[in-house]
Amino acid sequence: MKHETKKNLKQKTMKSLTVFILCGGKSSRMQSEKGLVLFQEKPFIEHIIQAILPITDKIKLITGSKEYDELKYEKIPDLIADKGPLGGIYTALSHSETEFNLILSCDIPLISTELLQQLISKHTKEAGITVFASETKTHPLIGIYSKNIVPVIKEAIESDELKMMDLLARLPHQIIHIEESENVHLTNINSADELNDLNMNLS
Q1: Tell me: the pLDDT tens digits for 48-82?
Q2: 138: burial class by Cβ within 10 Å (0-12, 13-18, 19+)?
């Protein structure tokens, strides 16, 4: 009976979860849309979508770029331009119809379904934000964000306090601790050099 209740609860959580991928703009270091950079013959964003789909197909992209038009998912341009990832999260949560939202950056091609399921299953309702962290690194752009924190984000944007770690410090949040070795699956690839390193390490 307990097992069944847990299963029903999980299904309920899945139904009340929306995934937003922050596509950002053109990366100066990549010289192109980061989410469309090829890794193992597929754009970053397709690797990410592949990891999400076993969990939910309720996926939306935060972007104003027509370069993502080939993807069938809804695209939402930033409500306030040039506010970085925080602006993207503000746009996502403002448009969301669900309390819980999985926010992902578009440059994490090694993210796995297993890690995302771990994040979702360990999230507690009391936390405004739930993210992964190892001893040396926190990953604020792979997290569960509550729609209820929109006023706090709006205030931060109006004050031009755009650092993600500052937002975490402002809110009740939950850290899911991971081993240092797991950071590789959560690492964002910001430059051609980092992409070359990744390809070399995996070859």
Answers
A1: 999 999 999 999 999 999 999 999 999 999 999 99
A2: middle
